[in-house]
Q: What sequence folds into this?
């Protein structure tokens, strides 16, 4: 079945460091891929998405490219800030599973000044 | 425009009891999905409702049920609570069924079963 595997945390970085959070997926066909962010005490917010191969989603300095050949959708940011501290979830929306969403287990990021 | 609201925000119950959680979607949104979030399992899909009909259901026992009203508000019920039901329950709304639109999440209801 469809599934998402993402890098386990927690991840701790210094401010202005480069961030990569790995995400790989298993799915039939061409699912849509998403990154969500969850700040403490809040629900999930959509960070970025890509709906077809080679698409690049971007928002707030974060980027992720839909790579079908490696079934990956890694999240990157060139210079993290303290305010980026949160839990990040990779997700896919399956095509042959009633468009159901599948989420990874989340990666906790802490950015220290 | 108001976001997705969930009530209550926190709940403490004992084993064997039942609980009902409520979700009010963003105005105009007709699809509501429910998820269970736990540290070990991450987010797991429970079910999705659209226009008062259940469209999709995850792999959860029959103790978990839901419904949607004509105003798109949704409730989720868990009967005969078990310790393992302790989790953050998130609801998400979208204009159309999740296949065609981005979901917007509420802040969640944190349930603790003692």
A:
């Amino acid at each position: 079945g469809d599934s998402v595997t993402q890098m386990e945390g927690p991840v701790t970085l210094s401010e202005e460091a480069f961030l990569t959070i790995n995400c790989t997926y298993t799915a039939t066909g061409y699912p849509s891929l998403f990154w969500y962010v969850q700040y403490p005490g809040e629900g999930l917010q959509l960070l970025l998405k890509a709906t077809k191969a080679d698409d690049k989603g971007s928002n707030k300095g974060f980027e992720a490219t839909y790579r079908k050949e490696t079934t990956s959708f890694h999240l990157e940011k060139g210079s993290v800030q303290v305010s980026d501290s949160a839990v990040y979830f990779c997700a896919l929306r399956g095509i042959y599973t009633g468009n159901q969403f599948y989420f990874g287990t989340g990666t906790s990021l802490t950015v220290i000044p | 425009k108001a976001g997705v609201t969930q009530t209550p925000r926190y709940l403490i119950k004992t084993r064997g009891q039942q609980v009902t959680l409520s979700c009010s979607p963003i105005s105009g949104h007709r699809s509501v999905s429910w998820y269970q979030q736990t540290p070990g399992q991450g987010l797991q899909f429970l079910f999705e409702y659209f226009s008062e009909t259940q469209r999709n259901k995850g792999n959860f026992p029959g103790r978990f049920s839901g419904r949607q009203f004509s105003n798109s508000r949704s409730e989720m019920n868990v009967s005969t609570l078990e310790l393992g039901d302790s989790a953050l329950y998130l609801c998400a709304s979208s204009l159309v069924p999740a296949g065609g639109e981005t979901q917007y999440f509420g802040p969640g209801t944190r349930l603790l079963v003692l």
Notes: The longest strand of chain A covers residues 86-93.
